[in-house]
Fold this protein.
Amino acid sequence: MRLLDEQYFITPFYGVRKLTVWLKGLGYEINRKRVKRLMELMGWQTIYRRPNTSKPNKQNRIYPYMLKGLEINLPNQVWAMDITYVPMRRGFMYLCAVIDLHTRFVLNLGVSNTMTADWCTDVIREAMEKYGKPGIINTDQGSQFTSDEFTGLLLGNEISISMDGKGRAIDNIFVERLWRSVKYEHIYLHCAEDGVELYEGLKNYFEFYNTERPHQSLEYQSPASWYLKAA
């Protein structure tokens, strides 16, 4: 799973067949059934030319993607939220984060061993309690984000809901860049022993990411300096 996690940033367009061949080429005795199960555990969403990979709950409403062609030039105009797999020395957990798209400021994070609607709803609620309400929140079509609990919180606060197209991680490109940064700059370098160590390490990393790490797109300033001066 750690190898698959790293490979995703290189070949996000690989499906179960190509990943099985790739792992066998590395010497692993593995079949497609097991590769598919690991991909599902990790939340791997292959990017296809014809999007067809997300597996939302068919009973829940899917909202249209609202960010195409939208000029995002204010803090709290659009937030994005996503979940990613995080390897530890023994086992794994999931990381959920909320990011302000204009400033790249990470508003809140959460760590869990399961991907539930309750967890995601708590993470976004905490972000809103700290920083107010955005105009739009963009997510993928995962069942956590299409749940009545999650969408009900947003609609109850008059927040517009935007969802990526199926299998199109490119729609949420800023979050994908965030995952790449946190994994290569922290997670892969500091393998946590348990969930407590993982959370503390991530909290420290995102404090660095927000307040010290310069971003080229922000004129080499930090996300916090942009967010706080414009919010």
About this structure: Residues 195-211 form the longest helix (17 residues). Residues 2-42 form one domain.
